[in-house]
Amino acid sequence: MPRIAYVNGRYVAHADAFVHIEDRGYQFADGVYEVCEVARGFIVDMPRHLGRLNRSLTELSIDWPVTPGVLPIILREVVRRNHVADGLVYLQVTRGVASRDFAFPAGTKPSLVVTARKADPAAAAKRAESGIKVITVPENRWDRVDIKSVGLLPNVLAKQKAKEAGAQEAWFVDADGTVKEGGSSNAWIVTRDGVLVTRPAEHGILRGITRTTLFDVAAKLGLKIEERGFSVAEAKAAREVFISSATTIAMPIVAIDGASVANGHPGSITLSLRHAFFDVAEKSPA
């Protein structure tokens, strides 16, 4: 079946989905996005994703492209038309189309694009069984990474560097050696005492939706969480290390900059979080 996309009020073939060359997302990265996991026929944590979308739009003074109540209908329809039972649905909102000028244009309608694609949960589970590797890179992004902006060039370069190094993710690290987050994920460690540690999300990192739901999962499993910074050195010495995102859930890290974490195998706490996630997460029928 051909893929279908939603573009500014129309459902069109993915191959024919286009936006105008003067869309401000294309020219200025003047836009935001969200990615929701689709699992077992449900859109996972959609209310929380749309809540974060509202925050991002508000921070950038971009209007909603449709009324908030309509957007979930569009997401479900794109998922349905693409026959996605397991995968992801992506939405992007930009300030819209206007003659190229840095200042906000007056009266421009925001642009909305929604796409969906399938994924193989068995492949993801197999990846989790062996774990993935990360490298570290110096933090070089703008200060407002708490906004889920489409301006991701530093992330692109970091993840390309990871790929060239045989790794699957890159962690941005402050000048003092404190881990911030991954190119497309939040970073976690598990201490020798079994405590989960992740950096506070008030400033300096994106408040990941999966990260937030993992707090609920941890509570169900009786696990303690500390919100504090941790260094690369502490991560390398940790009992377990993992990342979280809508596309990875809780994914074990088995090596950092080529150095094995613990025994070089995924840890039991990370896998228990992963296995319990779907039962705890909020599920909206797709």
UniProtKB/TrEMBL annotation:
Keywords: Amino-acid biosynthesis, Aminotransferase, Branched-chain amino acid biosynthesis, Pyridoxal phosphate, Transferase
GO molecular function: L-isoleucine-2-oxoglutarate transaminase activity; L-leucine-2-oxoglutarate transaminase activity; L-valine-2-oxoglutarate transaminase activity
Pfam family, one: Aminotran_4
Catalyses which reaction(s): L-isoleucine + 2-oxoglutarate = (S)-3-methyl-2-oxopentanoate + L-glutamate; L-valine + 2-oxoglutarate = 3-methyl-2-oxobutanoate + L-glutamate; L-leucine + 2-oxoglutarate = 4-methyl-2-oxopentanoate + L-glutamate
EC number(s) given by UniProt: 2.6.1.42
EC top class named in words: transferase
GO biological process: amino acid biosynthetic process; branched-chain amino acid biosynthetic process
Cofactor needs: pyridoxal 5'-phosphate
Pathway the protein contributes to: Amino-acid biosynthesis; L-valine biosynthesis; L-valine from pyruvate: step 4/4; Amino-acid biosynthesis; L-leucine biosynthesis; L-leucine from 3-methyl-2-oxobutanoate: step 4/4; Amino-acid biosynthesis; L-isoleucine biosynthesis; L-isoleucine from 2-oxobutanoate: step 4/4
GO cellular component, one term: cytosol
InterPro entries: Aminotrans_IV (IPR001544), Aminotransferase-like (IPR036038), BCAT-like_C (IPR043132), BCAT-like_N (IPR043131), Class-IV_PLP-Dep_Aminotrnsfr (IPR050571)
Family membership noted in the UniProt record: Belongs to the class-IV pyridoxal-phosphate-dependent aminotransferase family.
Described function: Acts on leucine, isoleucine and valine.
Name of this chain's protein: Probable branched-chain-amino-acid aminotransferase
Organism: Mesorhizobium prunaredense
Name of encoding gene: dat
